[in-house]
């Protein structure tokens, strides 16, 4: 799971940088307003999962959600098929 979390957080950071670049060069405020909060929430979910104990009743559900969200980046060469839910 650590590899999946590292991959997902890395893609989120890449997206944050890309959206900031678009906003700086093309004035993409609407894009930023709609996507950055979602990326922040996914980042928060990943960090919450890292902090959870394996016995936490929420752990399995959060892990499933992270696996589903990670599929958005399945085009990446670094994506692993075993991460699919």
Automatic annotation (TrEMBL):
Species of the source:
Yinghuangia soli
Protein name, as recorded: Uncharacterized protein
Origin superkingdom = Bacteria
């Amino acid at each position: 799971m650590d590899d999946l979390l590292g991959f997902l957080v890395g893609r989120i950071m890449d997206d944050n940088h890309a959206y900031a670049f678009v906003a700086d060069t093309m004035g993409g405020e609407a894009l930023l307003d709609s996507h950055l909060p979602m990326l922040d929430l996914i980042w928060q979910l990943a960090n919450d999962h890292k902090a959870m104990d394996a016995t936490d009743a929420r752990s399995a559900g959060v892990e499933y959600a992270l696996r589903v969200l990670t599929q958005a980046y399945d085009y990446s060469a670094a994506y692993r098929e075993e991460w699919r839910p």
